[in-house]
Every structure is written in structure tokens, then in C-alpha cells.
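Q: For a teaching session next week I want to show students how multiple molecules come together into a single three-dimensional assembly. I've collected the sequence lines for a complex. Could you give me the predicted C-alpha cells for the whole thing so I can convert them for display?
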Amino acid sequence: MKYLQVEKTSDNIVAITINCPDSKVNKVSSGLLKEISDVLDQIEKEEVTGVAIVSGKADNFVVGADIDELRSKTSDKEVERYIRSGHDILNRLASIRVPKVCAIHGNCLGGGLELTLVADWRIASDSTATVFGLPEVMIGLLPAAGGTHRLPRLVGLRTAMPLMLTGKNLRVKKAKRLGLVDEVVMPHGLKDVAIKRARMLAKKREKRKRKRSLVDFLLESNPIGRGIVFSQARKMVMRQTRGLYPAPLEIIDSVEYGYKKGVLKGLDKDAERFVRLVGRPETKSLMSIFFGMTALKKNPLEKKAKPVRKLAVLGAGLMGSGIAAVSTPVCETLLLKDMTLDAVARGMKEIWKGIAKQVKSGAIEKFEGEKRYGRIVPCDDYRDFRNTDIVIEAVFEDLKLKRKILGDIEANCEAGTIFASNTSSIPIKSIAQGCRRPQNVIGMHYFSPVTRMPLLEIIKTEKTADWVVATALDTGIRQGKTCIIVRDGPGFYTTRILAPLLFEGGLLLSEGAEMQDIDRAMHQFGYPVGPITLLDEVGIDVGAHVAETLSPIMEPRGITSPKDMFRMIEKGYLGRKSGMGMYRYDVPKKKGRKPVNQDVYVMLGNAPRRKFAVEEIQQRVSLMMVNEAALCLQEGIIPSPQVGDMGAILGLGFPPFRGGPFRYVDSTGTDTIVSIMEGLAEKHGVRFTPAPILVQMTKKKNSFYRD
Amino acid sequence: MKPRRVAVIDYCRTPFLRSGTGYSDLMAWQIGRHAVKGLMAKAGVDASVIDHIIMGCVATDVATTNVAREIGLGAGLPERIPAHTCTVACVSANMAVTTGADMIVNGHAEAVIGGGVESFSDPDIKISKAYRKFITDMTMFKKPKTLGGKLKLLRRMKLKDFVLPERPAIGEYSTGLTMVQAAERLARKMGISQEDQDRYAILSHHRAAEATKAGILRREIVPVVSNGSNRPISEDNGFRADATLEKISKLKGVVDRKYGTVTAANSSFLTDGGSAVLLMSEEKAKRLGLKPKAYLKSYIYTGQDLWDELLLGPAVAIPQILKHMKMKLSDIGVFEIHEAFAAQMLGVMQCLESEYLSRKVLGLEGKTGKLRIEKVNVHGGSLSLGHPFGATGGRLIGACCRRLIDEGERYGLIAGCAAGAVGNAMLFENAAR
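A: Of course. Below is the structure for the complete assembly, covering every listed component.
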């Protein structure tokens, strides 16, 4: 057998070790299923008193289904057959009348978790590496191997629903508390433990006692109560996704159907649901993000990267402390510098808060948290900067200041010290202008809040050395970021494509649109927040600075903010941080809505307010970003549509189910996009002129992606 | 073969704080790790070159008996670097450094971190002996099964056994003398007046205040932001810049309110803090392109009479190390001597000038000489900067190396006295000379 190692004890307990060949991780695949089926044939024939299932991998149990295999299936029939064969095998395993025990260390996700759900007993290793979850929803699928039925029956409907609908992971402590695992043991000798437990259960079955609160009992034990839970879940999903994502709704349907018709009928229907979802464009987009992220976790330049032992972050504000927080696990010593030690200490408090949270959730051990904190050395000067491997600056966005600190670093550090700027728009080459070692200068553009935003945009100039790019990339990946490497230029990629979108929001305002209408339309399009709110979050002053930096490449093409928009700064309307921006934050919300800062309407020309068609808003705002992205590809700022899509989704919140600007063009049709844009250009001005690359593609009937 | 030279590469310490102030929420290892991390940052060497970590500590917490190990790990240094803790009362860090130096001299290590840490903010206070016995008998040694048996154990207990903790051991175990008693005895025996003591204490406080103000100490202090705090700690908080003779002379003696001369103002106070020194073989330092600050030339430990020489370690150790090195007191340009009490400092100075001590007690020829106060502890000492027992030696070494460079002197000497009547002296040579 290639995938399984099967042993039998003298008292007829079968121990199955899952160890998929040629891979560091176990995945559910047809090869694995076939072998499990063979083992089941054997077990059904022989005398067996118990089954113990463990993993042969060092740090994972089963990480989920092999998505590559799934994607290689070309017809619906094939997909359906695959799912049904999985059902058959799990049902057979479930129906074996001897105790089945799974002992789990490491990731136990998706199909892996569904496999353990048919066991009678689940043992988890006491380790931060052990994680449970059903992440299918994140790639637009449902847990089709029985998860939607077996999980709620094990841990309760109200516990299971959010797990399936968000795809969030569970750590051991919580999994035990929720009743997903029956016991927690040390991570070594799991096979023996599983065998012993199977033996014990063979002698004496243990009844699992789930403690249910009265509310749970009332809601979950009868169809009426469950009806309430399902309708609540649907409402929540609709509120959060605006119905743009089919998978969560299918999941709720599946669970409900299972409770009404029974597990077997439910599974039968799940195969259809699964096929339906696999065919959806949303699923294709989400999967391509998933694959994109996985691919970007590898560093193709690994060999050129130098080790980073001593890392320095300049600026301990929101960005700086965030960068420091994600850096504590990846270096030996972390210098956190600001103008004053008080500022550093404030940043360190935020870092400690984050660490304490991770410790509490069980993501890291307590002492590991101490170690991470213990790496930080607060500084208010450069005296300890000797032999620093990489310096990441997150100071105020001011070219002069950045040049000055680059000079300071060159004076206080060595020839091998990388200087990375976290600027969001200033071209890296202007920062490096006149410096001694431009080959050491690079951009590392993090997104706020750093600890939560997955993207890191790495900007290389023509002079940046390969080893510098490699080292920055290596650092970013180890910080847990999904990194894209782009070419230098005003606003690089992400800021450059965001600016026209924000400007267009502003222009709509000056034409008389209501702020809420714009935001609502874009939210409906799939953005997490609308452009007007986003502007407030970013800060009007930051926006103004970005506008200024970008004006040389934007203004000639007619892309500008409304006249006088940035005069808001003079009045102190800086956005959320100052209590007033486009909206008002100094007064309470009315019916859950932020009140509009009426003054802004006046400042923008006081046009009479009128209704705009939702579609018009969506097209104008979204296409400004899409077109700019296409130009970036044409100019070589981004190397490929994939990189462009990942950057827009992970950094700017481009609707994930649309797969990014380039996939959006492909799915809408290049010709459609071009003709809409030409129409808009006629009506609203040259800024809507479609990028030459789009026009050419229309002529050649090309698409950005081949699949 | 010429013995290998041991270089002091760098030195770092945390701010020294009066116990119960800024570090009161930290365990000793948490203080110590800041010193070690600060040292690593300052020296700019990869942790992978470190072979061993030794930390001195006196009142170790039972939860972290090998506090050096927790410090090494907690500073994020690689696990493969072994660590041990040593204890010789107030010269513990001195022992940590000389042990590290010996490892280097003997070729067992190339680079060692030596230093120490102390926290008196959260001392282990024991429940009464009777209560401890009750608990251990109940749960470990006798484990009575019956209620009668349990009651029998209980009957031996008095109410106060449950309530009153045991007095922490603060005196010498062998003599029962507390440190302050020893200082008072010394002052009386040598005729050191309270005024003299107070004058010395004020000198120490003023020197510390001036050095702090001038930013001299800043260069070796790593700022500390303790977990969850948003306040940086970057200076020692023990010295009193405004100390005047008039103010402190009003204080009464600690052990003898009527005739006593040793007061809270002319004694060192309970202090929390950590220090760390990076030692390296001369060759290793050269290979790594590091510039040594000084070389450790020699060291000595001494033991004295517990009743009357408890605090005279430096007076006994200094003449002997000089004799061993065939040097005179006047060859030494920099002195850093541990100031447990002003009386002890003045006593040490008197002894060095005494023919009697030299000849009768140590069997040396003639007196050692006069310590020139302008060469001793010029930036403050334990009286003013504070005295975290386990860490003080590291501070003395650091101050000595810094002064050698700043003052352009060739030789520097540090010395200390310790509970148990142990003395120590170490001789350093400026690496630039």
C-alpha cells in the first residue's frame, strides 16, 4: 500500500497510519480513498475488535482534500462520482461495529476532519500545531463529505454553523471544550494511545455526554427551534455577503435538509450541491486565490536570501508596531526605534496585547510569547544598530524625512544592511536618490492593520540587488504575509490602482451623489467598505499626499480628485481619526448609519443631491481601478495578472468572488469592458479611456487567463 | 604556551530600580533577559557565537532556580546555548564572569555571557516551619488515612503557625549577624562617625546624579518596557540628587537607634536589576572583527573572619591581587568598588592604609596605600545607583571598562565584599593600551 500502513495487534485491533507518498502533508485523494476502501474490505472479512487511525506525518493529520485533483476533473459526472465514492467509504467506516479511534496531531481540516467525524473517539495532541476546521467555504465549497451533518450532531447546531460558515480554525483547548475531541494527550506515541483507547472502548463503550445549555436544548432539539437557527444564520449570511457568495447558503440548506430527511439523504443531495458549487464562477475565483496564496508562500529566490537575525523597525506608531509585531517571531533581536522612548513603549504595549491574545487563544505557548516580547529592544537613537540585517522604516510619509533616515542608517549600519521603506506611495527610487547604497534600498509596503492584513507589496527599483529582494521576500513570507513583488513607480501597484477608485467616489459626490448611495453600491458590488468610508479610514491627509505623489502620472490622463476636496484638511476633517471626515464620527450613528458631514457637500460645489443608478456608480468606481490595473500590467509594474489580482484582493478588498480585476475583465468579457469604458469616456471624460492593452485584447479576442 | 587572553567585548545593564517600584510585576528572569537582549543588540554579534551563559543571582525564585537558563531563552537566544546560575552573595556576577573567563582560558568556550540579576520586589516568603511540616506530612510523608490521624497532626499546630510567615533569612547563617549589624560593628571598631558616612553617601548620590544627567550611564543602560506597560524605564531611580548632609544626618541608626551610626541613608537599598557582560577569547573577537574594550588580567577570591571582616573583602582582596600581579596601588587608574555601606567603604580605605592589616593579617610587606577618592566610583556606586545583589558585579565591570576608555587609563580594578565574608578583586587592562 502506498498511502496507508496497516498493522494488526494480537488482540485484533487494526492500526491505520495515513502517510501519503511524495508529500509533506496528507490530503484526501482518490488514491487514499481507494486504499481505505481496500482496508475496509479486509476488515469486513476478518475478525477485528477496534480501529485506530493516526497520521504518519510529523506535523499534520489530514489537511483536507487534494484540490488539484478536484480541479483536474473535467466533467460534473466525474466530480459527483468522486464525492459519492467518498461518501460510500466514510459510510462503510462509520458502520463497522467496532470502536474507531482517531489520534490527531497537526492540521485536521476539511476532508480530514470529516474523516474523524465518523470515528467513535477523537484524541487530540496537546500542541499549538493541532488545529481543526472546515475551511471549504473559503474556496466556495461546502464540506460535502458529511461535515454538514455529522459536525452539528456532534457539537451542536449552534456551535457547528459558525465553524462551517466562516471556515475558522479551532485549537485544541476549544475543540475539547466544544466536545469535538474527547481527550487531549501529549503529542508523542499517538498510535499506542489510539490502540489502547480502542481496546478500552471495545471492553466498555463510553457514552459521550454533551452538556447543552437550556437555550441550545430549546433551539436544537426540535424542528421549530432549528428553524429559528437556520433563519438567523441565513440572515447573518445575507447581511455579510449580500448574497454574493453561494457556498454559505448551500451549507445552511444542506444542514437543514439533513435534519429534515436524515443523514443519508442529506449526503445524496450534498453531491449535487457540491457539483453545483464547483461550477460556479465565484468558486473558481476563490480557488484561484487559494492557489495563488499557496504559490506565493514559496520563495523562488530562497537561495539568494540572507539570514535576518537583527531587524530594526523605525517608527513605533500603528504601522511600525504592527510590523514589529509580525517580526518578533522571525528574528533574534528587534530594535524598535522612535523619536522618544515613550512612543516606543506605547507601541510595545500594543505588541504585548497582541501576543497576550495569541497566548490566550492557544496559538502560541506562554513562554513563546515571552520570547517574542523579549526580542524587542526599545531605542531612541542608532547606537545599537550595529550589524543590523534589515531596517524597515514606517515613519511619517515625507520624502525629506525618509531620505534623512536612510542617510542615518547608512551612517550607522553596514554595507550589508537592507533599508526597506514602508511608504505607501513615494517612489522608492526618489527615496534612494543620492544615497550611498541604492542597491540595498527596497520597498516593503504593509497594509493596516499589519497583524491582520495578509498582503505585503515588495517594491524593487532598477538598482535593488537580487539578494535584497530575496531577503525581503523571505522575511515577508516568514512574517506570514502573502507577498507580491512589483516594480517601482508612483504608488507602485496597490496605491496606484486604489487612488482612481477613491477619486471617482469623490467626483460622484461633486456631481450630486449621496455618500451612502456610493458606499452602498460598492458594498453591493462586493467591496468590504465603500470608497467614501475607505477614504475616511485611510485619512484625508494621507489621501491628499497620495494624490500629490500620483499626480504626475494621473493628471495628464484626466484622473484627479474633485477640485478643493483636500481643502477638507484645512478644516480639520481628516477622517475617522479626527472625528470628522466625509462622514461624522463625533456624533452617534443614526439607525446604524454614520451621519454625513454636510460641509463636505458644500465644499465640493454644493451640487443638488440626486439619485444615481447603482450600476452607474459600480461601473464608474470599479472600472477606474480595473483600468489602472490593466495599465500597470501593460507597463510592467506587475509581472502578471495573477499578481495583480492577488494584490487587489488581499490588499484593497477587491471582491474576492470576482477573482480580482483581471479575472473580472475575463469573466465580464474584454469587449464589454472596453465598450462600457468608451461610453463612459464619452460622457465623463478621458479618464475612462480604456488601457491600450484592453483594446488590443479585444481585437485579438484574448483573455488574461487561459483557463 | 601563552595563556589565552579574555576580552570584555561589551556590557549592558537594565536601569537599577528600588525594589517595589518599576519592576514589581516582573520576575527576576524577565529583568535579566532585558540586560542580555540589550547586550546582544549593543554588541551586534549573532547569538550563534555564544557558547555559554552564566548569571549570578542570590534570592532565586524556586520557580526558576536556574534563572540563567530562563534569561537566555527569554531573551530569544538559541536553545542550544547552555546556561547556569551561580551564587556567591554580592559577588555572584563577579563569579559568573570569572567562571566564564576560565572557560575561555581553558578552551572550553570562545564566547560567554556573564552577569547577574536580582529582584527583591517579590521575595519568596515562606509559611511557618510548623505549617510546612504539617502540609508535607499530610500530603507526602505520613499521609494519615484516618480522620484521627489527621487530627493528630492538626493538634500539634498553633493558630499563629497558620497565620505568621517565617522571617526571611537576612542575617549570616553562621553568626546570626545581619549585614547592617556587621556594618555598625565595623564603624564602631574603626571609629567611623555617622557624619563621615553621611558625607561619603552624599558624594555617591551626587556623583550618580551628575553621571546620569550627563548621559554617561545611558550608554550602558538598555531601556526596559515591561510586559503590558506603556512606560519606558531608562534611568536608575535610586539616587537622590537633592541629598544634603543636613537632611540625612537626622536619620537614626538602623540597628541601634541610640548610638547607631549606620542609617538607611548611608546604606545601600534593596534594588532590582540585571547586568550582562560579553566575554570572548581575544582570537574570536579578532575573527569577528570586534573591538575589545578591556582584557581581564587576573582575579582573586578571598575568605575572611565572619564577625569582624564580613565587609572587608576589598581590603583583603586588593592587596593580594596587587601582590600576585607585582603591582602597586598607584599603578591602578580606575577603581570600581562595591559600596554596601558607606561605613564599609571608609573601613576598606582605612584598612588599605593600615600597616597592621597588611603585616599581621595578610603577611604582606607594608601598607597597600591610600585610595584616591577621585579615582574611585566616580559615577556613583551601590549606595546611590543601587545594589541588586546578583547583578552588581556586572555593573562594576562595565563601569570599570567604560572609565578605562574614557579616562585613558591602563589598569582598572574592581572589588567587592559578599555575605559569608567572601571578597573578590578583578584586574582589567585597557584593550587600547
